[in-house]
Design brief:
This protein is an alpha/beta fold. The chain folds into two domains: 9-256, Phosphatidylinositol (PI) phosphodiesterase (TIM Barrel); 286-425 and 460-606, Alkaline Phosphatase, subunit A (3-Layer(aba) Sandwich), CATH 3.40.720. Helices cover 31% and strands 21% of the residues. The strands form four sheets. The chain has a ten-stranded mixed beta sheet with strand order 15-16-14-13-17-11-18-23-12-24, sandwiched between helices. Strands 1, 2, 3, 4, 5, 6, 7, 8 and 9 form a nine-stranded mixed beta sheet that branches. A three-stranded antiparallel beta sheet has the order 10-21-20, with helices on both faces. Helix 2 links the parallel strand 1 and strand 2 (51-59). Helix 11 crosses helix 20 and helix 12 (334-343) runs parallel beside helix 21 (596-606). It starts with 8 loop residues before the first helix and ends with a helix. One of its GO terms (molecular function) is phosphoric diester hydrolase activity.
Length: 607
């Protein structure tokens, strides 16, 4: 991470446009005009800022902090606002700027009055703060009206100076320079939106490179103060990102590793779809409904980027949008969203398989079973969780997972694969569901390995490993389970397979989680498309119950599989979600419609 050492050339190379910037922390943040904040110094200090700026005026040997001369107040001294609280922290920390750390804090003092008397006043003042001047973890850097470089050797070694772009320095003087600061307007009139003009950017980058080649840090002043500006400066390798928005920049920098996916997982190979144009009105014998829980357009594009610019999903050309609101809320949860697709009825949030008055609704497996159709439910999560539960459970509260599991005893579903075995074999009511299921002809297993050897036509395979994330080592569970279910059911079937943990990643605001789950979900989509091509009478539908996290994408590099995002929420959002369709009657899924229409279209095709 960027600490007291200079940015190495190798790290700089990794921080060029579209590359990961997770090496940045709040140590890379510069509190611009810090004294203008309600609580000077301590706000930035407690957020672990690496550089804090104070403008000072010298008056009769005293240093007063202000931006303009008319703002000077006798009580606002450098000592009171900065040196006293800093010394107190150093004492508490046992001699370092930050507790239990050798991280460096730069106190940048911008001289607004003539350099020589001002630096003399500063040195005189600092004599009373030996804890500050003796620790190598604090760098006092003079900016503004500095004394001439030829005079620097007269001052104590703890005094450093901000390098000037036009400056010419001896090797001894260079040792007193930790960073170079420059007005960004010398390079560009960029307003912080979009990209810097190429010629201006190249000139700016060349200067940054030259400073790094000299082993020094870089800071620009006069920049816009927004996310796009911060990100652009970081991509260019700027060491200190200045801000007046202390909390916003601190939050942005604190969680870099959770907000950037760096293409660490090997991309999966795209299935070469043979019948992309198979949108005929031929007979549909099978439907595979793939639900990416929490999957919106940003999640899809994050997966596309992470998979180096290819997704099976994006080969589908028949696309619609689903409106997801529930009966009682503008923003649906998975229970109401799943129930809408499973039963064709809007219901209240938290309700599963019942209408908004609590009356039981028939889901797709129940409706098509009398016609000879078999069904399978798969989830990369708990099989009694809201989305899969909507296809066999009937409760007014999604948390009643033991009750939901018991409802499976009266469901015609032939196959269930996922997690959540405890709701079947470790129940609080003592009901021995595995035994009851065996009486009904099911094989019950808690070992995913058994999928490879099962020859039964009806089974439940519920292993906690199915609940692991891709980052946690789940592997190809979802695709394997889908392929096994297809092989078992063979024809006249309905399968719902859920990429449950796209949603989980959104809830915890973790973009690597989201991207890797989306990529895994897309592998299952490829398997479904492959079977649809081979069979000729299988319709594949891919959609979501809702979007999670309010995800937006700030930056990315498709060739590197790198993507940087921002979450506006840790919960669901109200935006419409896409519906992709592949195979016969896929044209039926174009347009914008209620999520309940997905049920109606499926049932109409199978009945």
């Amino acid at each position: 991470m960027l600490r007291s050492t200079f940015l190495s050339l190798s790290l700089f190379a990794a921080l060029t446009a579209g590359a990961q910037t997770s090496a940045y922390t709040t140590l890379s943040a510069h509190a611009h005009n810090d004294y203008e904040h309600p609580i000077p110094f301590l706000t930035a200090y407690y957020r672990h800022f690496g550089s804090i700026e104070a403008d000072v005026y010298e008056r009769n040997g005293q240093l007063l902090v202000a931006h303009n001369e008319e703002d000077i107040r006798p009580e606002r001294t450098l000592e009171k606002l900065y040196l006293q609280p800093l010394q107190e922290q150093v004492r508490k920390n046992g001699g370092t700027a930050f507790k239990n750390s050798k991280d460096t804090l730069q106190l940048m003092i911008d001289f607004k009055t003539i350099g020589i008397p001002t630096v003399k006043a500063l040195i005189k003042t600092l004599e009373n703060y030996p804890e500050i001047t003796k620790t190598p973890t604090i760098v006092v850097t003079i900016s503004g009206d500095q004394p001439a470089p030829a005079l620097w050797d007269q001052y104590p070694s703890y005094i450093h100076f901000d390098g000037k772009r036009e400056g010419r320095y001896t090797s001894a003087q260079l040792k007193r320079i930790p960073m170079y600061s420059v007005d960004v307007k010398l390079f560009t009139n960029w307003n912080g939106k979009g990209l810097i003009v190429k010629a201006e950017r190249e000139k700016m980058q060349h200067w940054i490179d030259s400073v790094h080649n000299a082993g020094k840090k870089v800071r620009f002043w006069g920049t816009a103060d927004n996310v796009n500006t911060w990100k652009t400066l970081m991509n260019m390798g700027v060491n200190y990102v200045g801000t007046d928005q202390l909390e916003d920049l601190a939050t942005f920098l604190t969680d870099r590793k959770n907000l950037e996916y760096n293409g660490t997982a090997a991309p999966h190979t795209l299935y070469p779809a043979r019948y992309v144009n198979n949108d005929s009105l031929g007979q549909v014998n099978n439907v595979i409904l793939l639900i990416g829980d929490g999957m919106g357009l940003a999640q899809i594009y994050a997966g596309f980027t992470g998979n180096r610019g290819q997704l099976n999903l994006l080969q589908m050309r028949n696309i619609g949008f689903s409106k997801t609101y529930s009966s009682d809320s503008y923003i649906t949860d998975s229970a109401a969203g799943g129930t809408a697709m499973a039963t064709g009825n809007k219901t209240n949030n938290r309700y599963i398989g019942v209408d908004n008055t609590g009356v039981r609704l028939n889901p797709i497996p129940d409706i098509i079973a009398p016609k000879g159709y078999k069904s399978a439910l798969i989830s990369a999560g708990d099989i009694t969780d809201a989305t899969p539960a909507a296809f066999y459970g009937h409760v007014p509260e999604r948390a009643l997972e033991d009750t939901i599991a018991a409802h499976f005893l009266s469901s015609p579903v032939s196959i269930m694969i996922g997690g959540g075995a405890k709701h079947f074999n470790q129940r609080k009511d003592g009901l021995n569901m595995p035994a009851l299921l065996q009486e009904k002809g099911y094989v019950f297993s808690t070992r995913l390995e058994d999928l490879d050897t099962l020859h039964a036509s009806k089974y439940l395979v519920l292993d906690k490993r199915a609940e692991l994330s891709m980052l946690g080592g789940r592997g190809n569970f979802l695709t394997h389970s889908l392929e096994k279910s297809i092989a078992t059911l063979r024809q006249k079937f309905f399968i719902m397979a859920e990429g449950a943990q796209i949603d989980y990643g959104g809830h915890v605001n973790n973009l690597p989680y989201v991207a890797t789950e989306m990529m895994d979900f897309d592998e299952a989509i490829g398997a479904a498309m492959k079977f649809a091509d081979e069979d000729g009478h299988t319709l594949v539908i891919v959609t979501a119950d809702h979007e999670t996290g309010g995800l937006s994408l700030l930056d990315g590099n498709i060739s590197k599989g790198y993507v940087d995002g921002h979450f506006s929420s840790n919960d669901h959002s109200a935006v419409m979600v896409p519906v992709f369709a592949y195979g016969p009657h896929s044209l039926d899924f174009r347009g914008v419609y209620e999520n309940t229409e997905i049920f109606k279209k499926i049932v109409a095709l199978l009945k």
